[in-house]
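Please check our next protein.
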Amino acid sequence: MARISFTPNLQRHLDVATHAVSGRTVAAALAEVFAANPRLRSYLLDDQGRVRQHVAIFVDAEPIGDRRQLSDQVGASSEIYVVQALSGG
């Protein structure tokens, strides 16, 4: 199973431990995590289901290319990492 992990910044606000997921796309993997933690969805996705501007998602150390449909493929041994970027000066 693939593993999805979250930046410590998100872990400060929500209980988002690393999860094993069976989804074969980023959308399916996130849906599994959102089922267990519905509040996380609004931190990561906007009201149209797109990745928020200050969130980055990586699959096997590569940034996802599809921030709208989240159709990037996830392999059985993939590592997915979700980062909430910090902004400000």
Remarks:
- The longest strand covers residues 79-84.
